[in-house]
Amino acid sequence: MSPDPKLLRRLLRAKDRMDAASHEDWPVRRLAEVCAVSPPHFARAFKQAFGLPPHRYLLTRRIERAAALLRETDQSVCDIAFQTGWSSLGTFGRVFREITGTHPVQLRRDARAAMAAPGLVPECVLGAAHRPDLSIAVSEKRRRRAGGTTSATEPEEVA
């Protein structure tokens, strides 16, 4: 069942606001106000419409932006963390590594090494490969690693 077209437009408006200002705090209550619906209804409708809960979508945007800044600028990791909405450098580093599989400084080194030896892979393919995968929650990834279990439908993560 797809959301009402009017609600979908309001959900897109909320999603656009998160995209434009992913560095800001976007609690569900604030996003629900943008859509003029209750917070629980917003959370359910957002996940149904876009396949991710609002918080996970926001994490994706922040990590994508941070990764782009790491690849394209010489700003310090600390500056990038705060610029992309993280209030703690430690939390940024931990979540970044859990989502991308690498530390921020290592991503920067790898990107610079790749620039020094360009390959035959189109930029659009490289961009898609660098997109964070948040199809499951970070906390679920941690639980699976700690318990040493993976779902039969999910490929085992490489550390």
Labels describing this entry:
about 160 residues, mainly alpha, Arc Repressor Mutant, subunit A, 2 domains, about 65% helix, disordered C terminus
Walkthrough of the structure:
The protein is mainly alpha-helical and 159 residues long. The protein has two domains: 5-51; 56-147, Arc Repressor Mutant, subunit A, CATH 1.10.10. 65% of the residues lie in helices and 0% in strands. The chain has nine helices and no strands. The chain has helices at 5-20, 28-35, 39-50, 54-72, 77-83, 89-100, 104-116, 123-129, 138-147. The termini are far apart.
In the residues, how many domains can be counted?
2
Radius of gyration: 17 Å
Count of individual helical segments: 9
**Main β-sheet: number of strands, strand sense, barrel status?**
none
Q: Which class do the helix and strand fractions yield?
A: mainly alpha
Distance between the termini: 38 Å
Q: Kindly state the mean pLDDT as a whole number?
A: 85
Poorly predicted sequence stretches spanning 5 or more consecutive residues: 152-159
Per the CATH scheme, the topology name of the largest domain is Arc Repressor Mutant, subunit A
Form type: globular
Strand content: under 5%
